[in-house]
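Me: I keep going back and forth on a fold encoding question. No explanation is needed for now; the record alone will do.

Assistant:
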Amino acid sequence: MTFTDYKTMIAKSILFILPKKNFNEIEFLTTKRILEKDGCTIFIASNAASFCEGKNGLKVKNDISFFNINENNFGGIVFIGGSGVKEYWSNQILHKIARKFFEKKKITAAICSAPVILANAGILKNVAATCYPDDKGELIKAGAEYKDAGVVVRKNFITANGASASEEFAEAILTKLNS
């Protein structure tokens, strides 16, 4: 494997952060399908002991614990939403991980209620972003500039407001990855 092959492999490795319970299966499956179709390899991280469970019962095995995440091994990070992600809003470990991806100028994406994690990590201050409409107060409180839009792309940030924007969200990630 050449160095260029290695760099391409890292760039196409995407880390998904899933809540251990009640993640949004449409957001997860749609984004994963579109990224994999473009040649990305998806890795799952969670604080679940072994399996994450979606709001409709889909079980997904996690590959990595939060403590073993190294941002140098991935081209980007995607925080998947759903009601279970609210458990992560104040998670200091995830805040640190999000800041590391941001500082390395890697894709830092979040959908539904998950953009609140990025805002609470302090990396969306004065940055336009969107999220699930019911959570916009949390985004604003943390200093983000809330936009009522399906997907908002700013710098290396990609935020989306929910499952209906999943395809556009995934396409925005691919556009950034391939640019």
The chain has one domain: 3-177. Residues 3-177 form a domain with the Rossmann fold fold (CATH 3.40.50.880). The helical segments are 3-11, 25-37, 92-103, 115-120, 136-141, 166-177. The longest strand covers residues 13-17.
